[in-house]
Amino acid sequence: MLSAVEEAAESTKLWCGAAAAMAWLGGWRGRRAAAGGLAALTVAQLVSNGLCKQLADRPRPPKEWFPHDEVDDRPDSSSFPSGHTAAAVAFTAAVTPAWPAAGAACALPAAMVAFERVQSGAHYPSDVVTGAAIGLAAAWLTRRAPRLLLCRRLA
């Protein structure tokens, strides 16, 4: 089950599919939630994968710690932070204020992605916690950015 969630979350397919469903089925609220989720996801990916992984260059957990074959399929990039978790949390946290029911529906797969990243041997728990923090910050920033920019223009 966890491998299926991880596979769906690969390259943000799960979140893009959720955004498409929200936009199609949710009317104005669905389109707003989808746009906010995708914006936050993009910011989280840029920060986690584009910046932090380049600076940290942390090795993945040792293969010997994991008694399964999934550990052989993990990426070669830096372990810190978890970009999958950052994207999942960013999308979910950004969708929730616009459409709470959709955010609640996204919460379980987002938690499963975070858990799977540690269970599969791709990340240390601290990588996942940091990815979640990046996701929350990205959701907050994308929700507040228009107001912050408007306030600066008026001042």
Characterization of this structure:
By secondary structure, the chain is mostly helical. It has one domain. It is built from six helices and no strands. The chain is globular, with a radius of gyration of 16 Å. The protein starts with a helix and ends with a helix.
What is the helix fraction of residues, given as a range?
over 70%
Run of helices and strands: HHHHHH
Distance between the termini: 52 Å
Number of domains: 1
Mean pLDDT: 87
Lay out the secondary structure.
Blueprint (H helix, E strand, L loop, with lengths): L1 H8 L3 H13 L1 H30 L26 H16 L1 H20 L5 H30 L1
Protein name: Phosphatidic acid phosphatase type 2/haloperoxidase domain-containing protein
GO molecular function, one term: hydrolase activity
Keywords: Cell membrane, Hydrolase, Membrane, Transmembrane, Transmembrane helix
Summarize the structure in short.
This protein has six helices and no strands. With 155 residues, the protein is an all-alpha fold.
Question: What are the salient characteristics of this protein?
Answer:
155 residues, 6 helices, mainly alpha
